[in-house]
Design brief:
- This protein has three helices and twelve strands, in the order αβββαβββββββββα.
- By secondary structure, it is α+β, with helices and mostly antiparallel strands.
- The protein has two domains: 2-37, no CATH class; 43-183, OB fold (Dihydrolipoamide Acetyltransferase, E2P) (Beta Barrel), CATH 2.40.50.120.
- The strands form two sheets. Strands 4, 5, 6, 7, 8, 9, 10, 11 and 12 form a nine-stranded antiparallel sheet that branches.
């Protein structure tokens, strides 16, 4: 029922001339800057919808916002959103096959924080994270975070993992074990 509501909402937006691009299974971004996050994803959904899951550190970020491949556009060009390129130094691959030492993860917004997308996974240089990722078709050669902010988990200096729906935290070892069980 919820999915039907989301599809009707997107259809109505399109019928009024508002462009959209797909940001993943459960999100629709419209030309007005609104994000429709139709479904809160469970951990199982995140695991199933992600090609790879990595533990790593954000080692570099850049966004020149000059256009081309560094911006996200919608089909009718009502909106251009800068793209942040996040270089993640891979500490461990929890799910999937990935052998490089770094992985490029694309997020929408700019590094100043003046332009951001509601619900977007915001990454910070120096941050240790677990990321649920899928290969992004719009940003060739890069990955995007599954479920936007739902697919980003911060790992603090004490090894506690926290995310959008897990504010109290759990140990990194316990969280990884749960993910491993869900991949079987």
């Amino acid at each position: 029922m919820l999915m039907l509501f989301a599809m009707i909402t997107v259809s109505l937006l399109l019928s009024y001339g508002i462009g959209n691009i797909s940001l993943g299974k459960s999100q629709q971004q419209t030309g007005t800057g609104m994000v429709f996050d139709s479904v809160d994803l469970s951990l199982k959904d995140l695991v199933n919808d992600s090609k790879i899951i990595v533990l790593g550190n954000v080692v570099d970020q850049n966004s020149n916002g000059t256009g081309g491949e560094d911006q996200v556009g919608v089909p009718n060009n009502l909106m251009q959103v800068p793209l942040i390129r996040n270089a993640i130094q891979v500490e461990e691959v929890i799910k999937g096959n990935y052998t490089d030492k770094t992985i490029d993860v694309a997020t929408e917004g700019d590094l100043t924080g003046h332009i951001s997308m509601e619900g977007n996974a915001r990454l910070y240089k120096g941050e240790r994270v677990i990321l649920f990722l899928y290969p992004e078709k719009i940003y060739a050669g890069k990955y995007s975070v599954t479920g936007m902010e739902q697919g980003k988990y911060h790992v603090d200096s004490n090894g506690q993992v926290r995310g959008k729906f897990m504010q109290n935290g759990t140990s990194l070892t316990s969280f990884e074990a749960t993910i491993q069980k869900l991949t079987r």
